[in-house]
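User: Fold this, then the next.

Assistant: Folding the first:
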Amino acid sequence: MDRILYTAMSGAKQTMDQQAVVSHNLANVSTSGFRAQLHAMRAVPVQGDGALATRVSVAATTPGSDFSPGPINRTGRELDVALMGDAWLAIQAADGSEAYTRRGDLEVGPDGLVTVLGRPVIGEGGPLIVPLGSSVTIGADGTLSAIGEGEGPEALVDVGRLKLVTPPQALQRGDDGLFRMPLNDEGEAQALAADDDAGVVSGALEGSNVSAVEAMVAMIDVARRYEMQMKVISTADENAQRANNLLSLQG
């Protein structure tokens, strides 16, 4: 009887964790540049002093992210950029380290600092800062050009360039939702060098690569799987009660 409970209990617990991943993906179906989180389940042996070969539980894992591109949507906003190919935009994380995102809805703060998600955007020499009150445009190579308020086109000057990188391997998602290179032997994530060949599309944003239909189907499937496992637990309890009743009658 305990085999049934082991299987159903571990399956129900991990199904709840899988539902959290699916819900997170669905909640970000309209988030620019979002990359869907993958989820999978695998069988694992039960650990401990009473471990038996017949006891196997299940574990839900998030092996990585889906890096397939999302749709490009034209916005017409000068500070919106969609990254081309495998390029990523470098920004400064909360701890000061360099992280990467595909989100391209840039903002200029009251101090002239260019940000994404409230985080400074990194340029060739550090965080990008543009002149206050200027009109900013972004070229196909990520170069930011600014015109002062009330000035003509001849006053257009380059004020910096976005740091665009092309990772040599798959990036890892952090708890803050930003991506970084895998940790090296020293336990550090190394910053990538700028890719001069990387480009952007100005006036556009890359949408999320999450399919709302597929995410809804997955959510329904996971919910039904959880109900099935709870039904197994309920059935096992009913069988145990019937067995106890039979034993009491024989006594």
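Now the next one, as you asked:
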Amino acid sequence: MPGNFLLVDPAKDISVLRCLGSPARVDILGLLIRSGPTNVHVIAETLDLPQSSVSANIMVLEEAGLVLSETRKARRGIQKICRAAYDEVIVTFQRDLKASRNDFIEVSMPLGLYSHCEVTAPCGICSREGVVGLLDVPSSFLEPDRMKTALLWFTSGFVEYQFPNNINLVKAKCRALEVIFEVSSEVPGTDPVWPSDISLSINGVELGTWTSPGDFGDKRGLFTPSWWKLAGSQYGMLKSWNVNENGTYVDGVKISNVRLTDLRLDAHRSIRLRIEVKAEARHPGGINIFGRGFGNYDQDIVLRLHSEP
């Protein structure tokens, strides 16, 4: 499932539909959704289009709010980096639009607001401005400045977050629970082929394990600050974990038979989310979790409780 989508009302969002009426712009947007942040020169080469044509179409996509861009210094002058503003664009009529906007409760948890942690080195936490505490010292995860955390990493162990159980407060019935965050493996330096088994639990019930393919450092993350060394982890993958009455899924792929009823949300005043790399895992490849100000997605850990209509 996409973690970030745009709902388009064809009766109102004419400019977006007009923008998507061009095959070239659709190809550019599709490439950015698949590949992540990419410079204009690479877009032109990949799609076999003139660079001037790509630049003109990027401007139209920017005006429609479908693409975000920034300029960066390169070896030869300045390069323009573009990224898709959304993972998916959904065209829906107004009646469906209202329902879609009202059928979930969302809480965004700052990365540093974990309520409990046990981690092993190498490990560390960073704010947008710099390193918090000391690198590779697990007790630094208890520093008061951890509230500013925008990136954290560890080799094995866990961080746990306590979310309010707002579905009970509004006396609604939950039909699905979704957790979205940006994540990668962790290795000294970086390595795109470095699998790591990452497990999630809700209120002590383990949902399952997803294997991160690697630790990515081939290019700077779109929001990664300039002081962060290029040899370090730059960005992750935005993953969506979804638990419903049929089981648990990661990006729509079923990973376990743990169902929503197994979590017994109605019996808990809060929702405890644990993100973990077990020392005994088959692939104990560490973890990077990216929050606001680091990586390719400017967001923290998002919990969505989808309610019955």
